[in-house]
Amino acid sequence: MKLIIASNNRHKIEEIKAILGVRFDTVLGQREAGLELEVDENASTLEGNAEKKAREVFALAESKGVLEPGDAVLADDTGLLVDALNGAPGVRSARYATEGHDDAANREKLLRELKNVPDEDRGAHFATAMAIMIKGEPMIAATGRVYGRITREEMGEGGFGYDSLFWYEPAGMTFAQMSAEAKNQVSHRKNALELVLAALS
Fold it and tell me: Beta strand 166-168 with 173-174: parallel, antiparallel or unpaired?
């Protein structure tokens, strides 16, 4: 059985393969599967975007005849939700400051928005919503989360997105200060994948 990931991000595909590879013989990115499609992520929630991507990529795969019984399509959407900002940037995390994907501008805007917020009120969590469609079966949806707080300045050189501002208390450092391997052991995506794997068992 094969799993098609609704993404061309090699890092994400490898992370998903490491966990769901026990369930599927082959794990492919969207382009590897011959599916060229840019889904408009215009839903109002992370879950809505994940389900929309899964449905649209699944429909394209079906129309091209690349799915056998038991084959699946997995899509995800990730956001940072800050308590003091009523869950913002949330579904707009990648486009918080501009319509483009400018990580530095997004971080700068977040720090500005939280400038006068005291440390005890800077709680936040990352969430990854996943939706998996298996040929001949109902959709499975799951959301993984990891909790922390927003720092007052960037710390660490690793990671991407908001990682340098996300303080993870159990490790005593930001996600950007952790190794990729250590972060992947506790990340929101890993938590979501384990929920998906449990639902598939």
Answer: antiparallel
pLDDT at 10: 84
Domains and CATH numbers, the chain: 2-200 (3.90.950.10)
Angstrom CA distances, 194 to 80, 84, 158, stand at: 20, 29, 24
Closest residue by Cα to residue 183 from 15, 13, 8: 15
User: Taking a C-beta distance cutoff of 8 angstroms, is the pair 75, 130 a contact?
Assistant: yes
Q: How far apart are CA 157 and CA 191, in angstroms?
A: 24
Is pLDDT at 60 greater than 90 in this prediction? yes
Q: Is the pLDDT of residue 190 over 90?
A: yes
Q: Summarize pLDDT for 110-158 with one digit per residue, the tens.
A: 999 999 999 999 999 999 999 999 988 899 999 999 999 999 999 999 8
In the annotation, is 77 catalytic? yes
User: Exposed (0-12), middle (13-18) or buried (19+): which is 167, by Cβ within 10 Å?
Assistant: buried
Q: Which of 71, 76, 77, 163 is catalytic?
A: 77
Pairing of strands 2-5, 26-29: parallel
Q: Is the pLDDT of residue 181 over 90?
A: no
CA distance 4 to 66: 10
Question: Of 130, 113, 126, 119, which Cα lies nearest the Cα of 160?
Answer: 126
- Predicted TM-score of the model (pTM): 0.91
